[in-house]
Amino acid sequence: PGMFWMKDIEGKFLLVNDRNDQFLKVSNLTDVDSVIGKSDFDFLTREEADYYQKEDLHVIQSRSPLVVEEYKTVDGNIVWYEKFKFPVVDKQGEVIGVSAYSMDISGRKKLEQSLFEAIEREKELNELKTKFISVASHEFRTPLATILASSESLSSYWDRMSAEQREQRLDKIKNQVGQLNKIIEEILHLSKIQAKDKALEPEMFDIALMCGEIIDEFRNRPGELPKIEFNPGADPVNVYLDKKKMRMVITNLLSNAMKYTEPGKRVTVKIRQEKNRFTLMVRDQGIGIPKDDIKHLFEPFFRASNAGNFSGTGLGLNIVKESVIRHAGKINVRSKINAGTLFTVNLPLSVESIRQIP
User: Fold this and answer.
1) What does pLDDT average to over the chain?
2) What Cα–Cα distance (Å) separates residue 121 from each residue in 126, 194, 196?
3) Strand pairing partners for 278?
4) CB 101 within 8 A of CB 2
5) Among 11, 33, 135, 293, which has the minimal tally of Cβ within 10 Å of its Cβ?
6) pLDDT tens per residue across span 266-278
7) Which H or E run contains 67?
8) What is the C-alpha to C-alpha distance for residues 335 and 312, in angstroms, rounded to an integer?
9) How far is CA 326 from the centre of its chain?
C-alpha cells in the first residue's frame, strides 16, 4: 500500500511501484519505463532532489538503515509519511544501491496530536485546580474570618453594644457575604464561558447608556474613591450584543481600575464608534502592571506580582477576554509601573455581523 523504490549507486531508479505518482509529481506511473534510469532531479526541484540525495549518501556511507518522518502537501492537504531507507548489497557485501519504503501515517499523526492535546488539557486542568485551591483558601478565608469574628462579637456583647455598633458589625457581615457571592459568581460564569454550553443572547441596547449606569453605581459607593471621567457624547451607541456579558466586561474593567487607583486620582472611560465597530477604553492612574506579568494577565487565577495587598481571585480579566472573544472582539493592554494602565476593547456593533460564534 505504500511507496516502494530502489536506486542504484548513482541515484538512478531501478524499480518503482505505482504509488510514487504523487511523490514524483507525475500524473501516471503505470508506465514504469518512464521512471527507470532517471533520478530525483528529473522530477523534483533542485532543493528537494539535493535533500533526498544526501539521505541516500548517508545510507550508502553508513551502510545502515535510515527512518524519517516527513510531510507533503497533496491536493491542499498535509499528508504525513514514515520512510524507511536501507542499503542494497550484492553477494560480495558491496553496497550497490538504496531501497526505500514509505507509508502514509497521517492517521497515526492525528491520533498522536489528539493524545498530546488531551494530555495538555489534563495538565492545564490540574494547574487550574491547584490555582483554584490556592486562591480559594486565601480569598474565602479572609471574609469567613471577618464574618465569624463579627457574629461572635454580636453574640457575646449584644446587650453592651449600641445600635450603631451592631449595625456596623452587621454591615461587615453583609459586605463579606457579598464578597463571597462575587467570587462564586465569577467561578460559575467562567466555567460557563469556557464550556461554551450557552449561546450568546444578543439584544439591542445603548452601550454608552449602560456605561453611564455602571459608572454611577461605582460613584455612589461609600468611602473615598478615584474620580471617574466619562463623556458619552450626545448620540447613543446602539449595539446588538449579549447584554449580560457586556455588563460583565465593563464592570470588571472598571472595578480593576478603581481598585488599583488611589482616591483622588483619575479613571477615564471612553467609547468611540467607527463604522460597524466600537472601541471601549478604560484608563487608570494606578499601580500599573509589571512588564513580565502582562503576557499572563488574562490567564485564569493569575494575579500580577505587585497585586499582593489587593483582594481578588484573578478571574475577572479572564472572564473579560473570554466574553470579548465570544463576540469576535479584541482586547489590548498597555501599562507602566506607578503610571497606570489602559485597556482597549474593540467589538462589533452587532453579533449578526459575525453570525453565531461557536
Assistant:
1) 85
2) 9, 13, 16
3) 273, 347
4) yes
5) 33
6) 999 999 988 889 9
7) strand 66-74
8) 19
9) 12
The residue among 86 and 312 whose pLDDT is bigger is: 86
In sequence order, what DSSP letters do the residues of 145-170 get, joined into one string?
HHHHHHHHHHHHHGGGS-HHHHHHHH
Angle separating helix axes 207-219 and 243-259, nearest 10 degrees: 40
Q: Is the dihedral of CA 348, 350, 353, 358 positive or negative?
A: positive
Q: What is the pLDDT of residue 137?
A: 65
What pLDDT does residue 308 have?
73
Q: Is the overall model pTM greater than 0.70, yes or no?
A: no
Report residue 348 as a C-alpha cell. Answer: 462589533
- CA-closest candidate to residue 358, choices 167, 198, 151, 182: 198
Q: Which helix (H) or strand (E) holds 330?
A: strand 330-336
| Chain-centre distance for alpha carbon 12 | 50
Evaluate whether 228 touches 267 at the Cβ level (below 8 Å): yes
- Cα gap 64→85, rounded to integer Å: 9
C-alpha cell at 28: 501516471
Residue 207: enclosing H or E segment and its boundaries?
A: helix 207-219
C-alpha to C-alpha distance for 273 and 239, rounded to whole angstroms: 10
For residue 350, the 8-state DSSP code is: B
User: Do 31 and 122 contact (CB within 8 A), yes or no?
Assistant: no
What is the three-class DSSP state of 7? strand
Residues with Cβ within 8 Å of 100's Cβ and at least 6 positions away in sequence, in order, are: 3, 4, 5, 6, 83, 84, 85, 86
Read off the amino acid at residue 171.
D
Q: Give the integer Cα–Cα distance in Å for 322 and 194.
A: 7
Cα 33 to Cα 64: distance, rounded to the nearest angstrom: 29
Question: What DSSP string runs through 108-139?
Answer: HHHHHHHHHHHHHHHHHHHHHHHHHHHHHHHH
CB 154 within 8 A of CB 142: no
Rounded distance, CA 302 to CA 318, Å? Answer: 9
Q: Are 139 and 183 in contact (CB under 8 A)?
A: yes
Residue 140, classed as helix, strand or coil, is helix
Q: How far apart are CA 301 and CA 48, in angstroms?
A: 49
Higher pLDDT, 133 or 153: 153
Length of the chain: 358
For 31-46, the pLDDT digits (tens) are 666 788 999 998 888 9
